[in-house]
Amino acid sequence: MNSYDYIVVGAGPAGLQMGYFLQQAGRKYVILEAKECAGSFFTQFPRHRTLISLNKCYNWFDEPDFNLRYDWNSLVTNDNSMRFSEYSKELYPHADSLVKYMQDFAARFELNIKYNTPVTSVAREADGKRDFVLTDGNGETYRGECLLMATGTVKPNIPSDIEGIELAEGYEVHDIDPERFINKRVVILGHGNSGFEIANHLSGHAATIQIYTGGKLIKHAWQTHFVGDLRSINNTFVEMNQLKMPHLISGAKITKLSKNPDGTIRVHYTEDVPHWAVPGTMHSVAVYDHVIRATGWKYIDPKLFAEDIVPAADAKGKFPVVSPIWESTVPDLFIIGAAMANNDRKATAGFIHGFRYNIRTLFHLLEQRYHAVPLPARVMPLNTEEGLEDLVQALLTRISTTSALFQMFGVLGESLVISDGQVQWLSEMPMKYVMMQPELTKGKDLINITLELGFENFPKGTDALSFIHPNDPGGEGRCVAFIHPVFRHYCDGVLRDEMHMQTGVFVRYDAPNADFSVEFDKRKPHNLIYNFINRVVKVSEDVLPTNTFMPDGEIGQFTPWTPEQRYEMAELPKCVHTHQTDSKPELTKYQ
Questions:
Q1: How far apart are CA 394 and CA 547, in angstroms?
Q2: Fewer Cβ in 10 A, N or C end of the chain?
Q3: What's phi and psi for 229, nearest 5 deg?
């Protein structure tokens, strides 16, 4: 039997990312990969071979970490090497480029990967150590104290409530040759990116394509700000539908599929019609030539695990349940990769550009748990004005260049633990986890810093495209819609103060960004942070000015309107937010 400290199952991007950190730390680990190469999923998917992960290579500033904000395919390394931009300059790259990148990554860092090694069972010994025991398809076994499942999508999510669903072709296997669909009638079941990817591909060949959403509304990523919703690269079909092409997006729910003697398919469906003069549910049948299922994936296969260690799954059986540090309901069994998104469905954990940071954070937490290695931290004096100024300058650089907080907004953050005239600065910590740790909260002043969106402060359904004006640099900042820094001060675990800063095109607040932020005094970001922290540490009697505009005569000067000039613009979003001391919401223009 092969024994390891860590067993990683899967050599996709998540497995490679964790393998890199384990390799750099000199840990005894193995990555078990079922297929013959790293990144094998991407040799087949997406089916039409164009990634929806952005690859924006040119962003004016040259800091490597900053540029990772717009590089959604690279894995992170300690020396900022192995960037995906060396493999493609395309904004939406070809999937083959990602496969080549991952294979080169595995080879360059000499990761310990066993290929052609499908894991067939996972059990746990009953001895004192309770090590995991994995068996592969060749009967070889592997023993490890910590198990990291990086298996990604394990099987398609096939609806179980549709009779005859086997007549539908699956997204994962259907023949993508468009010639097969010339002048045919096609139904696509599903309302996500894969369904619209198919529709775009076939819309010029098929006579009609009808996407059945099962009553669910289409969510556009540009409106929801969630990267997993329908992306613009896949929404050409939406435009065709709206511009009166013979294609349709329908809320119909398929209940049964049956085959006609000529090979066509009878599609039985229901559709709720609450807007009819007599509301109700209509029942109908239509005939089509092809039905294609694009209903997503499952990220856990309970049959792989022994009965006593089956990780709990969510209500739909799609995702494993995970803790704030991505541990499953089975102790020492962690979920890494896209399934990390199950404890956060707003940020980017379901994609490489999000989970690469989660994995780096998890690695440090594993080092602490299993090897007594302290979490990486900076300790700075904070009992003088000079110490406060040093901290403020460091924070300005950090929030201006970090990619981890930018991508994992509201999830990962910086934690400043203040006590005894100094600050312990922990980076990229899961905020939910931090607030559960007595050593970081009990009897301490704690400042957590995140980057966050603020669209929840506006009425539901507000058009995202109506946010076309700068936020108000003279306001409190609580109504900033786009991504911006948020500082929260806790005393003994209780929230005492909160500050929202303005946003900007590059979300930067340091000196190099001066040319791109003309609407506010360049001193304001510094002064806001200085005052916020000083209210906690009280090392200075100064209160620096924050409600300032650019001096007269310079670009960015401000000319206030007279009362006679002021008017309401109904199309501008109205912010509704509740202060902690408020008893009712306050309505303001967005800032």
A1: 23
A2: N
A3: -80, 175
pTM above 0.90, yes or no: yes
Domain 2-155+297-371 fold? FAD/NAD(P)-binding domain (3.50.50)
Residue 551 has pLDDT above 80, yes or no: no
What is the bridge-based pairing of β-strands 377-381 and 422-430?
antiparallel
The predicted model gives 368-390 an average pLDDT of: 97
The pLDDT of residue 272 is 95
Name the average pLDDT for the chain. 91
Partners of 144 in beta bridges: 4, 132
d(CA 229, CA 222): 9
CB atoms under 10 Å from CB of 557, counted, come to 11
Rounded distance between C-alpha atoms, residue 402 and residue 509, angstroms: 12
Q: Describe the strand order of the beta sheet including 265-273 as a list of residue ranges.
A: 253-259, 265-273, 280-288
At the topology level, CATH places domain 165-293 in FAD/NAD(P)-binding domain (3.50.50)
Q: Are strands 290-293 and 185-189 parallel, antiparallel or unpaired?
A: parallel
Q: Which of 424, 427, 388, 418 is nearest to 491 (CA)?
A: 418
Helices in 276-413 by DSSP H: which ranges?
Answer: 352-371, 385-401, 404-407
How is the chain split into domains, by residue range? 2-155+297-371, 165-293, 377-589
**Residue 555: pLDDT band with limits 50, 70, 90:** low
Contacts of 65 (CB under 8 A, 6+ apart): 80, 401, 402, 403
Q: Is 10 left (phi over 0), alpha (psi -120 to 50) or beta?
A: left
β-partners of residue 146 are 6
Distance (Å) of CA 479 to CA 201, 322, 501: 40, 32, 10
Three-point CA angle 379, 380, 384, nearest 5°:
155
Residues contacting 87, CB < 8 A, separation 6+: 93, 97, 98, 100, 101
Note the pLDDT of residue 556. Answer: 55
Amino acid identity of 32? L
